[in-house]
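Table 4 source record.
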Amino acid sequence: MTISPQQQKRAILFADISGSTALYDKLGDVKALELITLHMEVMIAELAPHQGVLIKTIGDEILCTFPTAAAAFEAACAMQTAIARTRPAEGQPLYIRIGFHYGDVICEGNDVFGDAVNVAARVTAITRARQIMTTQAAVDALPPELSRRTRKITRAEFRGKEEALDVFLVNWELDDTLSTRIGLPQFRKPTEARHELMLRHRQRILTIDEQRKSIVLGREDSCDLVIQSTFASRQHARIELNFGKFVISDHSANGTYIRFSDSQVIHLARQEVMLHGAGAISLGQPFSEDPAEVIEYLVQ
């Protein structure tokens, strides 16, 4: 098959912080966000030494690519080792799970698309904390000294795939293979989760789900949810359902204020954060000023 100029072989890797929702409940939103940001930075720091490219962050998860399966393998092991050595001041250890796949992707701008990206996401979804899992295609592309550190553990069926795929566990912790093999089940992702976010502004209700995966908030009439406020930018913020996470990204001049259910408030300035539970959003105006235009949200 002829590969088009935009189609390239890449290793696609997702690295996801485990148990982040519980962390928000335990520490509060501000402290939890600080801790998650620290661990995200630790993971991202391992990309450049292994020729990795950060494609995007998705709440508490990163999507990145590598030129070879070996580079992704080495980076994944380095991430797990670096996270294991991280001792935050709060004394709250965090764990990550990593899944990667090797195949053809479509490179467009600063993003990647294609079936290979979906496969990598599905592999990550069945991975437990402190584990690295990968596919037959990635193992086949590894040199012998690395492929020997993988072991087939299951044959999984993925949505959209006619045939089940072999899934392999990577032994990254050579001196403690038992914990790597078993993983931490309390941080397993739920196999079935509803992905729906409801927004309410005045008398209007919008839903983000698998059918409608993103909306734009702002003052401009073309926005999905128009907010008539002098504090709001024309296209102020976007909320997206991205690999099972609802992420709000600020693109405004005045920033976006998020108030979570525990009354903690985060101010986003050209940043993004994962929405969870219930809360409120104010475009450009702090909650301390009692804004008239408040958007309520509920993730369920």
